Amino acid sequence: MTDSPRLLLSLLLATSCCLLVFGSAPTPRRRITKTLYLSNGLPWGNWGDTEFCEDKSFAAYVEAKFEPYAALDADETALNALILYCVSLETGLPTGHIASTVGVKGELQGMKICTHGFITAIRARVLKSQGTFGDDVAIQNFQIECDRSYIINAVDGQRDSRIPLGEWGEWSACPDGSAICGMEIRYNKVDALTDDAATSDAVFYCCALNDTLTRTNHRDTDEAGQGPGIHLHLVDQ
Question: Going by fewer Cβ within 10 Å, which terminus of the chain is more open, N or C?
Fold first, then answer.
């Protein structure tokens, strides 16, 4: 993609950020090359909707919704959403955004841009369970790799004296010739009576850049009824 479409995308998204309506994106017909799992996700909360970029579009921008740490707040939630903005492979223009689940707490941290290429790998910083008297926050941050060449933090400058920083998990990467095109978020719902952790796990889907197959899918669950799942039916075009 050229710099001009990227600049246009920045302007369009910047002027429309306050008008975003988070909801399920239409399910596309495309070929998934790999499902990316977090190595350190936590089994808290419920899975949201599986959302995909439009056909022939891939994730190129990222934005986090994050609750900054406050001295007077005894129940922090850290990351409340990860929003991926999709760009057309053919035109370099925006085609929408996906988020799966958006929590009620926190503030948008500003878009982080892949100046060229698309998102090809991802990992999360996760704080493990803090026990009965600690404050659980689960996922604190995401790192994304753009075009297999450079790394961006979804949330910058995380420092806190009361809540420790968690550990970065292992990188999960798309195969060559593909990039992230879909996602699903696990979210621990905010409850005034319990310790909230907000975003606790995530799954991402890689799609082929040169897509010659189509698919239909429906969401399924694992045997426990809580995990994400996609049934694929590949058909020649």
Answer: C
User: Rounded mean pLDDT of the chain?
Assistant: 76
pLDDT in tens, 20-52: 444 444 555 678 999 999 999 998 889 999 999
Measure CA 125 to chain center: 13
pLDDT tier, 195 (very low <50, low <70, confident <90, very high otherwise): low
* Full 3-state SS string of 96-164: EEECCCCCCCCEECCCEECCCCCEEEEEEEEECCCCCCCCCCEEEEEEEEECCCEEEECCCCCCCCCCC
Q: In DSSP terms, which residues pair with 202 in a beta bridge?
A: 185
Residue with tokens 């990316």: 36
- Across-strand partners of 85? 61, 97
Q: Is 157 left (phi over 0), alpha (psi -120 to 50) or beta?
A: left
Distance CA 176, CA 132 (A): 44
Cα–Cα distance between 1 and 19 in angstroms, integer? 26
> What tens digit of pLDDT does each residue of 140-174 get?
899 999 999 999 999 887 655 466 788 899 999 99
Tell me the three-class secondary structure of 196-230, residue by residue: CCEEEEEEEEEEECCCCEECCCCECCCCCCCCCCE
- CA 85 to chain centroid, in Å, comes to 10
